[in-house]
Amino acid sequence: MIKYILVPLIFVFAYSFSFAQTQYRNIMITNENSPDEPTVVINPENTNHIVAACNIDAYFFSFDGGYTWSSRKLESKFGVWGDPCLAFDTKDDLFYFHLSLANGFSNDRIVCQKSENGGITWTAVDTAIGQNPPHMQDKEWACIDVTNSLYRNNVYLAWTQCGQGNGVYDKEGGTRNPETSEPQTDIFFSLSTDEGISWNQPKIISTEPGSPCTDVPNTLLGVTSTVGPDGQLYECWSSGKGIIFNRSTDGGATWLEKAITIDSLPAGFKYSIPGIYRCFGFPSISCDRTSGPEQGKIYVSWTDQRNGAEDTDVWFTYSSDNGITWSKVTRVNNDPVKTQQFCSAMTIDQSNGHLYFLYYNRQDKSSNLTDVFVASSTDGGLTFSNEKISESSFDPEESTFFGDYISIAAVDGIVRPVWTRLDGTTSSLWTAIINEN
């Protein structure tokens, strides 16, 4: 099944701090070209094979479990403009989604590329989705059905369209509010049944529009997706009314007539953290596809400041009925005082149902010194264990863009977080070696 071969790693980074402040070894992936907004995936067929990517066009692959990395630059006939998203299908092929940069105009479409050799090259597929000038397409996310359902290997893609210019509203175009004629944001969706070669006509899956992109706290932004054990498709995103959820049980053909509000986000999804350029509390969503007792449970996590601007926290809820009802919102971090835990990501290890949450933490600091923590749960979110995984703190400066998200992946007890470290105005990309077995 594995179609790639090992090749010499031309640009290899394997640096680590010597400070013995954590049991987890830190590996610097790169400190070139101001990396931020990383994403990471682990190959389910070979956990030594890990791939990461970051803004704007850099990607990295490792064949030794993340100890050493090869660095390369992604190229596309549509250009590359960041917001990377990676996903493996069941054929061991790797998909890379990103924004476009065509003819000097960025964000005019979403691009899908595919590698059949583990990320060494990306020549198998190079297609574009959602072009609708003059409107912007932004913050895409994708998932692939890896179940044994009818929709196996369907590729699902969702993103935000920002209405601009003199666009005309219609049911599928969704660029302007039909009542006020003002530009608006919508969550769009498309799918591919032929491994990314072609895509169906994009449709709106948000049942209420958001404000224009210039009014960020009230936009529809940060969509994320996952697949259930029987091929159910789940999507959620941030909005001015809270975290919104929609689902499809027929491979993306039909959706709920009215999307469900998971949580009202009383303080909104955009907030301020001292020393950080900007912060969004975008949601992460995962679904248990194991054969264990939590099978089918949907998990959603995010960060917000409902307890005050000096007390940002990581939150968590779950649904056991396909997203119709949701549990009481629970705090993940366990700090005893009002401190800052922000910019989180969540994943689930489908081998055992364990949950992992990655976030930045200032619980021991009175300054802007920042650490990186991972919280884990082995009982479906009833209890959490929080551990520091960064070997030393960093002190960021607000003038430098920090990125809007970080990433974590877990397969068969191999857990690999990826985060941005910002020392003053110098950014670098890091992982930690966490092996639960």
Describe this structure in words.
The radius of gyration is 20 Å and the shape is globular. With 437 residues, the chain is mainly beta. It has strands at 12-13, 26-30, 39-42, 50-54, 58-62, 69-73, 85-88, 94-102, 105-115, 125-129, 136-144, 155-162, 185-192, 203-204, 221-227, 233-239, 242-248, 260-263, 270-271, 279-280, 284-287, 298-304, 313-319, 330-331, 341-348, 355-361, 371-377, 385-388, 407-411, 414-423, 426-432, 434-435. The protein has one domain (12-435): Neuraminidase, CATH 2.120.10.10.
SSE layout:
Layout: E1 12-13, E2 26-30, E3 39-42, E4 50-54, E5 58-62, E6 69-73, E7 85-88, E8 94-102, E9 105-115, E10 125-129, E11 136-144, E12 155-162, E13 185-192, E14 203-204, E15 221-227, E16 233-239, E17 242-248, E18 260-263, E19 270-271, E20 279-280, E21 284-287, E22 298-304, E23 313-319, E24 330-331, E25 341-348, E26 355-361, E27 371-377, E28 385-388, E29 407-411, E30 414-423, E31 426-432, E32 434-435
Antiparallel strand pairs: 1-6, 2-31, 3-4, 4-5, 5-6, 7-8, 8-9, 9-10, 11-12, 12-13, 13-14, 15-16, 16-17, 17-18, 19-20, 21-22, 22-23, 23-24, 25-26, 26-27, 27-28, 29-30, 30-31, 30-32
Give start-end ranges of low-pLDDT stretches. 1-20, 165-174
| Main sheet: strands, sense, barrel | 5 strands, antiparallel
Strand order of the largest sheet: 1-6-5-4-3
Number of structural units classed as domains: 1
Main attributes of the structure:
disordered N terminus; 5-stranded antiparallel beta sheet; mainly beta; Neuraminidase
Short précis:
The chain has strands at residues 12-13, 26-30, 39-42, 50-54, 58-62, 69-73, 85-88, 94-102, 105-115, 125-129, 136-144, 155-162, 185-192, 203-204, 221-227, 233-239, 242-248, 260-263, 270-271, 279-280, 284-287, 298-304, 313-319, 330-331, 341-348, 355-361, 371-377, 385-388, 407-411, 414-423, 426-432, 434-435. The chain has 437 residues and is an all-beta fold.
